[in-house]
Design a protein that fits this description.
By secondary structure, the chain is of the alpha/beta class. The chain contains twelve helices and 16 strands.
């Protein structure tokens, strides 16, 4: 492993940053103290800071030499609504919220890269450091873009990195093409005619219709999607009724679907709508569906070939070839960095956080970011800048 001495010397300071952020987690669009912490550090490095994109986003820019390309490096900074169950000194001080996905580590690594690059600007071009809010289901990347991110900070490429459990510590997983799935959710309302449970013929039963619909939805993947494609449709909530002896007039179903192609995303959407309409009609009830009722769906996270090659070259300058996984299995998890990749070519990679044993997997109340990764992540960011901006 090749890491500059100046990066290793920052390790303890980055751990202090990371532990501070872990203790004070903030969820989507509430990252005010987190943003202030990041902005203060960036200014202390001598960078000009732009605040407020995507409500709480923070952006800084560093230029070295004349001309050259411009690239963006992105870290997410929001936490989750999870009650932490760890007992270490830096555990969350905000009840019901924790950094269970490692965004505290991502932020600290990008801060470390910004610090190093301001002191060692061995590149020709411009680096834009993006600290993004609301990755966890609230599409903060899209909000920053809608607020003018790439108009104010035009770039040729955009890069992202996320820690991942069950990849060996400090290894990288990098591939061109789809890496993470599209994400959509839906809410279905089935409205029948309430009646006494002893007199079902006097009403129209939304519960039976919901059961038929749930079973039918499970055939979308098995009987509509090409077996060579990957997709999943899951019902995650069922709400209906409040007593033992009455059939309710309404049932609410909520769920999600994931896939790796836009055309598959469109096909599943059409098929769900068709099943809601047809089963509702046959049951004599009213069926309504809303897609992504609270937040926009996420596109597929797709890495472009040229940017992926840059990422592979940078990782190869940091770790041995055996520590780079070139064909990782794409994840059905989703990532709003996909919105940035729809605007600019780029590459999103995984850095190994180590085994998930003892609850150390993403979105788990026992999770904690592996501090050993901090200098590895910074070294990757630095090598990426030096690889692209030559």
């Amino acid at each position: 492993m090749t890491i500059a001495d100046a990066i290793n010397e920052m390790h303890e300071e980055m751990k202090r940053w990371r532990h501070h952020l872990h203790q004070f987690p903030e969820t989507a669009y509430e990252e005010k103290e987190t943003a202030a912490f990041i902005a203060e550090k960036l200014r202390s490095f001598g960078l000009e800071v732009h605040e407020g994109l995507g409500q709480t986003g923070v952006v800084a820019r560093l230029t070295s030499g004349e001309g050259g390309r411009s690239i963006a490096l992105r870290a997410d900074m929001d936490a989750l609504f999870i009650q932490e169950q760890n007992a270490f000194a830096h555990k969350s001080k905000h009840d019901g919220k924790m950094h269970a996905c490692g965004h505290d580590g991502h932020t600290s690594m990008l801060l470390g890269a910004a610090s190093y690059l301001t002191r060692h600007p061995d590149f020709k071009g411009t680096v834009v450091f993006i600290f993004q809010p609301a990755e966890e289901g609230r599409a903060g990347a899209k909000q920053m873009i809608d607020d003018g991110l790439f108009t104010l900070f035009p770039v040729d490429y955009v890069f992202g990195m996320h820690n991942f459990h069950d990849i060996p510590e400090g290894h990288f997983a990098i591939k061109s093409g789809p890496l993470m799935a599209a994400f959509d959710c839906f809410e279905i309302k089935l409205t029948g005619h309430a009646t006494h449970a002893a007199l079902p013929h006097s009403g129209t039963d939304a519960i039976v219709a919901s059961a038929q619909l749930i079973n039918a939805l499970q055939t979308i993947v098995s009987r509509t999607i090409d077996p060579a494609d990957s997709a999943v449709v899951s019902i995650t909530q069922i709400h209906g009724g409040n007593t033992w002896n009455a059939l309710p007039g309404e049932v609410i179903l909520r769920g999600t679907f994931r896939c790796f192609k836009e055309e598959t995303q469109e096909l599943i959407t059409r098929k769900i709508r068709h099943l809601v309409d047809s089963i509702s009609l046959s049951a004599g009830i009213k069926g309504e569906i809303i897609f992504n009722p609270e937040n926009p769906g996420y596109p597929v996270t797709v890495n472009t070939p040229d940017a992926t090659e840059f990422a592979l070259n940078a990782a190869s300058a940091v770790v041995e070839a055996a520590q780079i996984h070139r064909e990782p299995t794409p994840s059905m998890g989703s990532e709003d960095f996909a919105f940035m990749l729809k605007e600019r070519p780029g590459c999103y990679i995984w850095i190994g956080n180590g085994p998930s044993a003892h609850g150390c997997m993403l979105h788990n109340p026992h999770y904690d970011f592996n501090d050993a990764l901090l200098p590895v992540g910074v070294a990757y960011w630095v090598k990426l800048v030096e690889t692209v901006l030559v």
